[in-house]
Give the backbone structure.
Amino acid sequence: MVIIMEQARTSLTALCADICDCMGIKAPESAEKSAGHLKKLCGEETAERVIMYNPDAMAEWLYKKYPEYFEDVSERCALEYPLATVMPSVTPVCFATMYTGAAPERHGIQKYEKPVLKIDTIFDALIRQGKRVAIVATEGCSISKIFLERDMDYYIFEASADADEQAVRKGLELIAEDKYDFLVIYNGMYDSVMHATYPESEEAMEWLRHHTKAFARIHSAAKAAAATSGRATLVGFATDHGVHTAENGRGSHGQDIPEDIEITHFYDFI
């Protein structure tokens, strides 16, 4: 499949409104203006369903250095979307920006902490429009905590080596059931393992491969569900931040350096 290359790097703050534009809903109150790239992908159609797969710490430099590891993603997606994440480039800060469209100083999470967000999020915007919304994630992760206290469904799995696979399987089940209009599926084992080893360790790269293969399964399920329901679907492979090797030899992130800031998302409109 031909990939649409967007050369200009867009701030992660634009993504939330971009998704909302595709779905034909008003963006959250503090969301920055859409860059329009996803709307261009969807054309004149409205995305009746959005499935966001959120693997943690998939740095752009990993994609550029190991494109073969990402073929299950890149070959299925029509849009390669270069983004600049926000500072500090740590998980709760970045996902808060991704799903509010607001800079950290506006949404309030400015360090590695996981409070429940009080400002308007994409989940609130969707709920106001009567959309069915759910998060599938691992207990203790940022996504399982910062978006709580909304009138939506949460499928949170106990932290374990198998939790990512459980989340993917549950996501596939929910896609097949056509149960939600907006579904987030989080996986974090690459991030965990690279912190314990380093970004290009054999163990970490095995998990990176697991995440890209998981997206292939999610994409296939979405395609099958769209064919059955006739509901136009936007599917995204959407990471939060990058990674680098710290002085101690372990994987890390949080700095204002290209390795941590530059990320690539992939999207397909089915």
